[in-house]
UniProtKB/TrEMBL annotation:
Species of provenance: Methanohalophilus halophilus
Protein name: Fibronectin type-III domain-containing protein
NCBIfam families found in the cross-reference section: choice_anch_L (NF038133)
Sorted UniProt keywords: Membrane, Transmembrane, Transmembrane helix
Membrane-spanning segments: 7-31
Amino acid sequence: MRIITLYIQIFSAFIVFCTIFSGIASATMIVEDLSGSTTEEDLVNILLGENSNVTVSNITVTGSNQAIGQFSNGESLGFDTGVVMTSGLVSDVPKSMDTEIDTNLGEPGDADLDTLIGGNTNDAAVLEFDFVPEKSAITFNYRFASDDFPYDYDDAFGLFVNGENIALLPNGDVVAVTTIKGTEYYDGSNLNNAFSGSSIVLSAEAAVAADELNHMKFAIADTGDSWVDSGVFIESDSFISNNAPNAPADPLCEGETNPTNITDSTPEFSWNFSDPDANDTQSAYQIIVGTAEDGSDMWDSGKVNSSSSTDIAYGGSSLEAGITYHWKVKTWDNQDSESGYCDDQTFDITDKPDPVPPQIQFHTRGLFHQ
Ligand SMILES: [Ca+2]
Ligand SMILES: [Ca+2]
Ligand SMILES: [Ca+2]
Ligand SMILES: [Ca+2]
């Protein structure tokens, strides 16, 4: 009886251990390159998503068909599925972080990347196609990753739209090993793939010609030699053609433009959401209020997920009479694209009570003198 109980206890402990362990360990990334059943068209469809409003033609891949593919189980990257391109073998990408991903494919480099990085590239993997968007802007999310961070070989990624590279770090630098290493854009955490480090999730946005033929080219390569590989993970469904909202129109405080002597100590704000895409709606707003233009020392609402654009009550520090407060608002559309702020707006409040209406004063005085 005691032995059976002991077995049950050991078995229970084993189940608990397995449950905890499977909760911690993330699923292994699954990849499939172009040497299998995945086609070039599949990759573009993965990038486009269903609601992309883009017509595509002339899809071509340059480089090894083992260097470009699709991935899933990519949660650690910040996006589950997408397209992966490397200067080595896609099949090596899911290996553990301490594996060196290091293959000389014997493939040539790419002239556009040579120019971009000012070096000699090799083992280029290139996906390109023509497209006709309905709207005048496109956006992509991606991560650049590399095993070359410790060595400073300047492997690079380019995303060329109509010949112009739009893959840039937030500081305007090109996306490469030495521009990312040691900056706030570097992420050295284990993201369940073989690369020793990566960029943070980056987004590329570009103006394109609506209803006209545009050309897009994704390219990644080794630089300097063909060894120690780099890769790029591009999020599925991230090729959304969308216009960012305009700055909010008609910003009002207490229903007025730049009111003075308002008596409400928690005044309400309103505006009109404005977007070049006729069917788009507001998904979020942010209001800031400060004692100086562009200041947020009184109130920063943060990004508030809401479609409301009327009667948004002030929620900051106590307002005082005799100070001119500055405020502005920006919005996000239902595709999470962000507007600029409206122009600087002002208001001030009074500490005087509402004045007694003059006609009552007149009547009171008249009665007194009778
Ligand atoms: Ca590695
Ligand atoms: Ca390399
Ligand atoms: Ca290589
Ligand atoms: Ca829009």
